[in-house]
Target: Ppx/GppA family phosphatase
Amino acid sequence: MLSAIDLGSNSFRLQIGEYVDGAIRVIRAAREPNRLAAGLDKNNHLTDAAIQGGLDALRSLSSILKPYPISVLRAVATNTLRVAVNAPDFLVQAEAALGYPIEVISGEEEGRLIYLGVDNLLARPDERRLVIDIGGGSTEMIRGRGEAIERVESFSVGTVGQSLDFFPGGVITAAGFDAAILSARSHFEDVKSYYHKRHWKMAYGSSGTMRAIAELISTMGIGDGRLTAKNLDLLRLQMIRAGKISQLGFPGLRPERAASVVGGLSIMIVLMTDLKMPVMVPVESGLRMGIMWDLCLQSTEHDRREQSVSGFMRRYKADRKRAARVADWATVLYEKMAPDSDRYKKLLHWSALMHEVGMFVSPSNYHKHGAYLVENADLAGFTAREQKQMGKLVLAQKGNLRKLNGIFDNPDAVKAVLAIRLAVIFMHSRVSEAVDAVGFRMKKRIEILMPEKWLKQHQTLSYWLGRERDWWADRGISLLIRES
Model:
């Protein structure tokens, strides 16, 4: 059973689903409104009230999760926690309240997951499309063909900011709308040519605010009932006539959603007008469904992370044969050490594949350059935490071990570090034999059982292993090499 949690700028949402016959069936969905973005002060600090509201919402979602046998869950945070100065402090409390790790994802990763959810809903492999999601703190635009994304961008304009900045006190005026539209237009002006109608055939709106606007136009019988620029403008006029957000007694519009709808409408008017969009189709899919599909695909050969690593290696001109050799050896050695779980197995394999990308910057200290690139690149499919762990492993491949703060608290992480270091040593020593001949005993000290002939046939191997013994001793860990 899968679960996705989205800590959005306007509300926190949860979906629980299961994969059945090629589709994900949603079993439970929940929404906890809190308008987190409205809790940012002028210095981009979350207020105490906003933090408390967020923690209460997460405790509520945690209680919903408990009866379900969740096998895998991913919780992500979006724009507000990307910009909040005190987000790290909040996240420590938030993870304790939820009971699961929370990742702050980039706008581009958010867009990728949104598109993944929409693509799997539509199942139209050759369709050229534009997908737009207007959230509380940001707007994502993704252009693609079938499952392939051609361009994805995130813009720091959302429903909460538009509502607070241009309709203060909930007052709706023509001047307020004009200012909101002009402000929204400034965010998209430089990129609108990339998302123009000539690049796609169908446009889809995936956010709850966009679906709410579409429902209003349909149920109120505005124009022809479709989501078009003309009908959006007619809805704008009706809102101006109402005069206040609190007086928007539109059918089906929940009071807690009204402010977001007003702010979101100003953004939609700009996008549909400037991109020459004839009509937009609202869809019941987006970020949370994309997360669950991503979790499904990660357990198959369609893991997006494999593609990201391959593209990353290509970009930095890594030697694929050397990389594959080190990755295969590191994986075998890690398994020989009998780790407690598979948590580090894939991360170790990918880290080893990317272990020499830093050569692109400079052969000197390439492991440090590589660690920085891996940790800070936009690697689609990876969480920030995973990239940080891979960066640590790339950094760990050589040199002193004092730089690896925190890793030595986890026995499996220590085994992953030893595996990548030995794999790199074997490559530099020109070892060609199968590394499954190497054995390990790991209790209070590390014993490596090495075939006797290796030490005789590979002249530099003894030297490198001697250096390795010194590095581990520097961390207070005894490492012994025994011939087998």
About this structure: Residues 2-105 form a domain with the Nucleotidyltransferase; domain 5 fold (CATH 3.30.420.40). The chain is about 50% helix and 15% strand. The longest helix spans residues 255-274. The first strand starts at residue 2 and ends at 7.
